[in-house]
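User: Sequence recovery, please. Input:
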């Protein structure tokens, strides 16, 4: 490519205003304090200057999915009219930080434009006592529960897709694998800047060499995520879709990759492996976009184009009357 990749100006300004902690030296208490402060900021009205304003005409509210052993909060986006709608199960990014509120912009637009009911899982965040299997179970168990109670949720259990961003893309990809193994037919999976390998091999990619110090995701942050996700005694391979042997028979995938991203090659290689296994997969790349760009439409212009791609793809797969206008 002839052009030099530089993060959008808004990202450079935010990076200059912020100060990164020593991620790998954080104690449990320090991580908890950073998480609480960051999630309050992401859920604030002021943050919408960065995270985007929700679409009008969509009802947005918190609910609880009550399971046998726990209750999982979910943020539900429902269009103003319609019943028996497609279901899109969404999982936000962040890993050890993050909240479904940060994704209101894209989820409310999906809800209105498909139209569909979008259920965003407020999964357990990683910390020194909570590893990746817990977060993955939250995504999978909510998906099964909503499908099993489709009438209550007003969704069509035959038209279901999963959609995840970053660490949420990992949870969504794992849910797609579990759905296949359980005989649950998904129509689609959408993975945006997904982190798909939490083993050491996940760092052995050119994109880490090129963008390991990117302003919205760095190698130290990914190392902390790995440390929390798969502590000693937890096998990373079954939790790393990029390393799963059998990728046949999965739901068709759209993988959206920003090029200024250490995990960009995770998405690229996953598309290669899905196609080799006979699973339909589409890759789109956004030159000059940074990791987590879909949650930052206020500062990354590429977000609107990515949103339009996702609406079009899901509309095709879910048989919805999708519109990408506006």
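Assistant: Recovered sequence (326 residues):
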């Amino acid at each position: 490519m002839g052009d030099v990749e530089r993060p959008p100006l808004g990202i450079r300004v935010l990076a200059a205003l912020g100060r990164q902690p020593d991620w790998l030296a954080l104690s449990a208490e320090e991580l908890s304090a950073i998480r609480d402060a960051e999630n309050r900021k992401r859920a604030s009205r002021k943050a919408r200057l960065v995270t985007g304003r929700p679409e009008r005409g969509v009802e947005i509210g918190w609910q609880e999915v009550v399971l046998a052993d726990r209750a999982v909060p979910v943020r539900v986006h429902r269009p103003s009219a319609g019943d028996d709608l497609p279901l899109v199960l969404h999982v936000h990014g962040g890993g050890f930080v993050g909240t479904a509120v940060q994704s209101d912009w894209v989820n409310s637009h999906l809800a209105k434009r498909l139209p569909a009911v979008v259920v965003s899982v407020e999964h357990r965040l990683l910390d020194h006592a909570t590893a990746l299997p817990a977060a993955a179970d939250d995504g999978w168990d909510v998906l099964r529960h909503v499908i099993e109670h489709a009438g209550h949720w007003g969704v069509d259990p035959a038209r279901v897709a999963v959609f995840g961003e970053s660490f949420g893309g990992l949870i969504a990809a794992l849910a797609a694998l579990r759905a296949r193994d359980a005989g649950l037919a998904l129509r689609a999976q959408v993975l945006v800047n997904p982190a798909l390998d939490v083993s050491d091999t996940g760092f052995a990619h050119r994109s880490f060499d090129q963008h390991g110090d990117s302003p919205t995701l760095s190698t130290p942050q990914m190392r902390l995520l790995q440390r929390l996700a798969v502590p000693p005694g937890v096998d990373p391979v079954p939790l790393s879709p990029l390393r799963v042997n059998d990728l046949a028979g999965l739901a068709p995938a759209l993988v959206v990759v920003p090029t200024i991203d250490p995990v960009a090659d995770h998405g690229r290689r996953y598309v290669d492996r899905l196609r080799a296994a006979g699973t339909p997969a589409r890759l789109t790349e956004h030159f000059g976009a940074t990791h987590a760009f879909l949650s930052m439409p206020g500062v990354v212009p590429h977000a609107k184009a990515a949103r339009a791609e996702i609406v079009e793809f899901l509309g095709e797969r879910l048989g919805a009357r999708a519109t990408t206008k506006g």
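The mean pLDDT is 95.
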